[in-house]
Amino acid sequence: MDVDNNLSIPDQKSIFKDKTIIGKKFEIVCWDTGSFFTPNYSIDVLKSNGILDYKLKVKSNEFYVKSNLDNISNVDFRPMADPVPVKPVWPIKLIFLSILLVVSIYFIFYFWKNREKGNFEKKSYLYLETPKERAINRMQILENETDQGKYYSHLSKILKQFLEEKFYIHVLEMTTKEIIDNQTLLPITQDYFSKVISILKTADKIKYANDLVDNSQLKYDRDLLSEIIGIN
User: Fold this and answer.
1) pLDDT above 70 covers what percent of the chain?
2) How many beta carbons lie within 10 A of that of residue 88, not counting itself?
3) Which of 23, 41, 67 corresponds to the end of one domain?
4) What was the pLDDT predicted at 18?
5) What is the pLDDT of residue 21?
6) What is the pLDDT of residue 198?
7) Rounded Cα gap, residues 232 and 222, in angstroms
8) How many domains does the chain have?
């Protein structure tokens, strides 16, 4: 295909019918004005054995490209300039933004002036409770507790917290069996240790096996805890 220097073919597509090519579609772009001819185009027609039989040539057609400036007396290019905006008599936008700014500043100072000031009290750490004093204070929760499961849950927790704070051993994280297996970690006598285990075993039966005890046993275990803490 012969193409003129002022022409270009950016795209060409085949025309199909029943999955068979029946023609070609070309897009021609002209880069100048004047008279042009469509490019010469030919199609090779082959014999059944694949040998060239003849060439089918497409007739070249002449076409014209005209400029819109041909019918204009003054063909000089005009400068590209935006229209000059007309300023309003009253700058409404500026006035609105100024009022909004003044109102915002007023409310900022108003809320800042009327804010609630925090009243902080300085804690005194000069007096620290001993493990015994803390255990005694915690035992007050047992006075009005009627549910045996909650009663022994508080009882065993008070006992473990007392031992942990007194001997600096993580007793709260141990089960009763783990405490028995690690008896040597606690610097206490065998009699003292037996009282601790007695309370913990009773608490385990009430909390996990849903056993019940009479009021005398409740009082006995509470007195035993008081003895371990050192109240009696």
Assistant:
1) 88
2) 9
3) 67
4) 83
5) 74
6) 92
7) 11
8) 2
